[in-house]
Structure formats: C-alpha cells, structure tokens
Amino acid sequence: MTLKRRPQGEPKQEDFELVENELSEPGPGEVLVRSLLLSVDPYQRGRMSEARSYAKALELGETIISQTVGEVLESNHPRFTPGDVVVGQLGWTEYAVVPAHQLRRVPDGVPPAAALHVLGTTGLTAYFGLLDVGRPKPGDTVVVSGAAGAVGQLVGQIAKLMSCRTVGIAGGPEKAKDLADLYRYDVGIDYKGQDVDAALKEACPDGVDVYFDNVGGQITDLVLLRLALHARVVICGQISQYNNQQPELGPRNLGLLIVYRARMEGFLIPDYAHRFEEALTRLGRWLAEGKLTHREHVTEGIENAPRAFIGMLRGENRGKTLVRVT
Ligand code: NDP
C-alpha cells in the first residue's frame, strides 16, 4: 500500500493506492518475509506530510512505513529459517525482501499481535514515557489522555503496578467503561459526554502529579489547570493536532508550570533503543504474571489498511489498531 497523494486535513481512501510490484529474489544476507499483521499508528500521519519533523516525509508512491510481523519464507542468513515469525519495519506490504539485520525474531509463545502491541513499540512507549519521563512515585495521581488507546491502556496499568492512583480520559461511554473495567483505571472520564473540568476536579482532589499526554489540545489545557506541586507532564503525542492544516494556537496557560514548578518533556521512543531489552523483559514478566491486559482492534485485508488508519484517527478503534494480511 503506497501514498498516492498527501492528505489535506483528514486522510481519505483516495490518498492511498494498492500497487503490485515484481518481487526480487533474496540476495546474500537477505530474507523473504510474508506479512501476517501490519501495525497502524498515529505517527504515520506525520510521515505523509512535508512539515518539518524528526524523520523524513514519505515520497509519493512509497510504501506506507510500519512495523510488521511476518513469517520467513526463504532465508540467506544463518539467524533465520523458514517458518520463523519475525518483526521489522517492513511497511504495509504483503511480501518483503529485507536484510536480516532489520529483523528481530518473535520469541516462541508470544502472539504476533502482542509483538506489535504490549511487547512492541507501543509497550515500550508506555513503559519509558511513564517510568523515565513521568517518574511516578507510589501514591501519585497519574492522568492519561487517549487512555483507552494502544499506548494509553498500558500506561494506566503500569501506573497501577507502581502503586499510583489512575485517571483515564477517552472518547465515549464505552471507552470510559473500558478504562475502569479492563485497564484498571480508578476513574474513567468520557471527554465527549462529560464536563472534563468538573470530572478532573472531582477525580484529582490533591492535583495531578503525572500527566501522560497522548492528545494535546483542550484536554491538555484542562489538565494543566489541575497540576500538583512538582508535577511531570509527559508529552507522548498530540493526536488532536495531527490533521490540522495550520497549528492551533495555545496552550496559553504555560504560566501554570511556574506556579506548580512543573516539568513538561517530550520524548521519542527510538532514543531508548539501547534499553529495549530491559523493558521487554519487564513487560514480558508482567504479561506472564497476568498483570497486563491488552486489547487489539484488528481489520482484515491489506486493502482495508487505509480505512483502519482513518478510523483510528477518528477514535473508532477499541485498542491497538492492526491489519491482518489475509
Ligand atoms: P491510539 O490507539 O490511542 O489511537 C488514537 C486515539 O486518539 C483514538 O482512538 C482517539 O481516542 C484519540 N483521538 C483522536 N483524535 C482525538 C482528539 N481530537 N482528541 C482527543 N483524542 C483523540 O493510538 P496510539 O496509542 O498508537 O498512540 C497514542 C499517542 O501516542 C499518539 O499521539 C501517538 O502519536 C503517540 N506515540 C508517541 C510515541 C513517541 O515515541 N513519543 C510512540 C508511539 C505513539 P478517543 O476515542 O478516546 O478520542
């Protein structure tokens, strides 16, 4: 699946094109992989635009970049044999020929979906964003926006494992119910149906010690009003802004960082690559002990990947968005 034209505002199906290319034979050190599951992520929206960012924009006609889990069909490298399940940056494609060093084996017993979610980039984002940037202490109140999404559902559960009190914000009554019922949030707030300011005031009587922000915009403005002294504000994502043609003005309330001597810090997960093994070991242990729940939202067929992507940006996903290649 390729980028046909750059989306203006919300992406449309016509911005994408499914094309067929001749597959080359794997050369020395290369591996032929058949995709099983494609990851669908908000950062892909940024790569479709030419605006300045941390990575270069996709060219028109280029395959949409993504993490992918696949099965090895042929291998010219001793580390892999046919039948191995691997994960790598293969993009939205059915087959790929890639150098072996770009692939990581999915350990036996790890379901392919988990390798793209709790034991993949998403889990690593929740782990390092919360623990390294947010630095929660037992008893802290941790507020998470985008809390029912792929990253957010894990942040809340990791915060509970750190003995924090957790408040999640998500869109719609079903997602707010999921926050409490599935993801162990102490309080779930539906920002579409509730008065967020009043709900935060009630849920955080002693203020917000850690705010893990996935969405930005007005929700963030309201959380900043409730910071506790020495609060940490983790800027993970700003999805409410990704389809904007012009940057939204604000936040205008940064003076609150002075009042509460708070720290606001953005982070990018590739910067933690040297510590991925440490995090995956700990996440894997929590998973094996039944301490982490994770839900995926799976769409069938690579031809439906754009639909899944557009739906995810609209909030139609209930969990980590994936596409199964059938
Ligand atoms: P999600 O599974 O959370 O899906 C996106 C969700 O965003 C939607 O379900 C929707 O939830 C919410 N959303 C969309 N528009 C708005 C809006 N206008 N206001 C509020 N919420 C909105 O995605 P991920 O978990 O994969 O990603 C979450 C965030 O983490 C993203 O911002 C992403 O860019 C960021 N990220 C950052 C990384 C880093 O290294 N810093 C790495 C990976 C992800 P709802 O229905 O609740 O509105």
Task: Briefly characterize the structure.
This protein is of the alpha/beta class. 27% of the residues lie in helices and 24% in strands.
Write out key terms for the chains shown.
15 strands; globular; Quinone Oxidoreductase, Chain A, domain 1; 2 domains; 27% helix; 6-stranded parallel β-sheet; alpha/beta; 10 helices; 24% strand; 7-stranded mixed β-sheet; 326 residues; Rossmann fold; binds NADPH dihydro-nicotinamide-adenine-dinucleotide phosphate
Question: What are the SSEs and their pairings?
Answer:
Blueprint (H helix, E strand, L loop, with lengths): L1 E2 L12 E2 L12 E10 L3 H5 L20 E8 L9 E4 L6 E5 L3 E3 L6 H5 L4 H14 L6 E5 L4 H12 L3 E6 L2 H9 L5 E4 L5 H8 L4 E6 L3 H8 L2 E9 L19 H5 L3 E4 L9 H13 L7 E5 L4 H10 L5 E5 L2
Helix pairs in contact: 3-4, 3-9
The structure holds NADPH dihydro-nicotinamide-adenine-dinucleotide phosphate.
What is the overall silhouette? Answer: globular
Query: Sheet bearing the most strands, described?
Result: 7 strands, mixed
The helix content, as a percent range, equals 25-40%
What does the radius of gyration come to? 20 Å
* CATH top level class name of the largest domain: Alpha Beta
Spatial gap, N to C terminus: 14 Å
